Amino acid sequence: MDNEKVYQMPFAKVYGLLLQKVLKKGRTREEFEQVVSWLTGYRPEELAELQESDLTYGDFFRKAPALNPNREKITGVVCGVRVETIEEPLMREIRYLDKLADELAKGKPLEKILRN
């Protein structure tokens, strides 16, 4: 799938899929929202509003209030690609969230996921 297709996907759909992934593994909505808020700077109530909007996944990251500077500490493989080597900045942001959702689903403690 090319990057532009990913950027044009509805935010609500992708967010819902990531949320289902972590819920299925026994984590909570609150934990997932905390991870997304840490990464992007959106507050949980803003995330709820955005899920009701027609925002694209690309714009969700383009308009993020405060991308966390510690997000660059996120490393590892997602969808067969090493996140720290992704050249396209917007795709790297998207893969950071994928990686965090994976870590949450795998039971990693929040303190480690949030890389504080």
Can you give a write-up of this model?
The chain has a two-stranded antiparallel ribbon with strand order 1-2. The chain is mainly α and 116 residues long. The chain is 58% helix and 3% strand. It has helices at residues 3-8, 11-24, 29-40, 44-51, 57-62, 89-105, 110-113; strands at residues 77-78, 81-82. A hairpin with a 2-residue loop joins strand 1 and strand 2. The model has no long low-confidence stretch (mean pLDDT 95). It has seven helices and two strands; from the N terminus they run H-H-H-H-H-E-E-H-H. Helix 2 (11-24) runs parallel beside helix 6 (89-105).
> What count of helical segments does DSSP give?
7
How many strands in all?
2
Separation, N- and C-terminal Cα atoms? 33 Å
Mean pLDDT: 95
Order of helices and strands: HHHHHEEHH
- Which consecutive residue ranges, at least 5 long each, have pLDDT under 50? none
In terms of DSSP E residues, the strand content is under 5%
Given helix and strand content, the structural type is mainly alpha
Adjacency order of strands in the biggest sheet: 1-2
